[in-house]
Design goal:
Blueprint (H helix, E strand, L loop, with lengths): L1 E4 L5 H13 L3 E6 L4 E6 L16 E5 L19 E3 L2 E3 L4 E5 L6 H14 L3 E3 L17 H13 L3 E6 L5 H7 L2 E4 L7 H7 L6 E4 L6 H13 L5 E5 L16 H9 L4 E3 L1 H5 L2 H14 L3 E5 L17 H20 L2
Parallel strand pairs: 7-8, 7-14, 8-9, 9-10, 10-11, 11-12, 12-13, 13-14
Antiparallel strand pairs: 1-3, 1-4, 2-3, 5-6
Helix pairs in contact: 2-3, 2-10, 5-6, 9-10
This protein binds phosphoenolpyruvate (PEP) and manganese (II) ion.
């Protein structure tokens, strides 16, 4: 960290600051130039609030040299994090999660599992606890939904993925699902993130639609700090001034995550677009920028879907998209 002192700072104030820094375990070197005086402070600032230095009268500006996300930081490990799920290694192999927005009935989720498997995807999604904007909208089937999802996934040799909204349900999720999803609305539910740190299950952490990449990594940091380092990030679009799509898919965040972190990152084009017709193009674009996988909503009969039918692919379209994604993935890996 670099602290630039104000010109005409009082010596007494600088002494107080210097002593406080030493007391907190830092060392520093003061460099006096013609125009400015700066202190180059050495030491780990992970748990230190650099902003509080502005409380000192002598401090003009503070420049951070360390990212606040230490565990999710690329420098933490030499290799990228990979997550073993059945025969797939997320972070190395193309990983596609398909399935309906919500589990609606036993037969609907079994039909979904079959079409997801036949198309060649690896995991089955389905919400049983739905965080809906309206309290009058379908809220999900709860435990029964989780159980049906899990049975359908197992019957078809798929990994199950479902969203948790309340840490009180963690035992149920640990029992029924293979990957626990944290939705955009709960990305900063810190109590939930801490609880998930104690789970042995991999976590799929969606980006909040109003959150920065750094805030997203800090949320992953919560989970890791509490003991679970099996995390995949999921970009699902952010809120902008553009109303034509449900959200704006920020594909540059995939590049940012790859530059900043060792965690794998997947993309959900369905919730970003809100329109089935855009999913194909956005999914391909996501792979092209380096996403490790995709989460795509697909429904046996989208017009009858209880939620998000407008963005859900029909089975044939999903199957064609899977063929195209596999071919694209092969090409990208060959040319890497
Ligand atoms: C979902 O995946 O069903 C969902 C609600 O997504 P998001 O949290 O990205 O809105
Ligand atoms: Mn949905």
């Amino acid at each position: 960290m670099i602290i630039k002192l104000k010109n005409h700072a009082s010596l007494a104030e600088v002494d107080t600051l210097s002593q406080d820094l030493l007391d907190q375990g830092f060392s520093f070197e003061t460099v006096q130039g013609d125009a400015h005086t700066v202190m180059h402070v050495l030491g780990d600032t992970t748990t230190f609030d650099e902003k509080k230095l502005y409380a000192y009268d002598c401090v003009d500006r503070v420049f951070s040299l360390q990212d606040p996300f230490v565990r999710t930081h690329k420098d933490r490990t030499k290799t990228k994090t990979t997550i073993r799920l059945g025969s797939i290694t997320v972070g190395r192999d193309l990983f596609v999660i398909g399935g309906p927005c919500s589990v609606e009935s036993e037969s609907q989720i079994h039909k979904s599992a079959r079409l997801v498997k036949e198309a060649g995807a690896h995991a089955l999604r389905g919400g049983a606890y739905k965080p809906r904007t309206s309290p009058y909208a379908f809220q999900g089937l709860g435990e029964k939904g989780l159980r049906w999802l899990s049975e359908a996934a197992k019957a078809h040799g798929l990994i199950s993925v479902s969203e948790i909204v309340d840490k009180a349900d963690l035992a149920l999720f640990d029992k029924h699902v293979d990957v626990i999803q944290v939705g955009a609305r709960n990305m900063q539910n810190f109590d939930l993130l801490k609880a998930l740190g104690n789970s042995a299950k991999p976590i799929l952490l969606k980006r909040g639609f109003g959150n920065t990449v750094e805030e997203w990594l800090m949320s992953a940091e919560y989970v890791m700090n509490h003991g679970n380092d099996q995390i995949m990030l999921c970009e699902r679009g952010i809120r902008t001034f553009e109303p034509h799509t449900r959200a704006t898919l920020d594909l540059s965040s995939v590049l940012a995550i790859r530059e900043l972190s060792h965690l794998p990152v997947i993309v959900d084009p369905s919730h970003a677009a809100g329109k089935y017709a855009y999913v194909d193009g956005l999914a391909k674009a996501a792979l092209a920028v380096g996403a490790d996988g995709l989460m795509i909503e697909v429904h046996p009969n989208p017009v009858r879907a209880f939620s998000d039918g407008a963005q859900s692919l029909k089975p044939e379209k999903f199957s064609r998209l899977m063929d195209a994604l596999r071919a694209l993935d092969d090409t990208l890996k060959k040319n890497a």
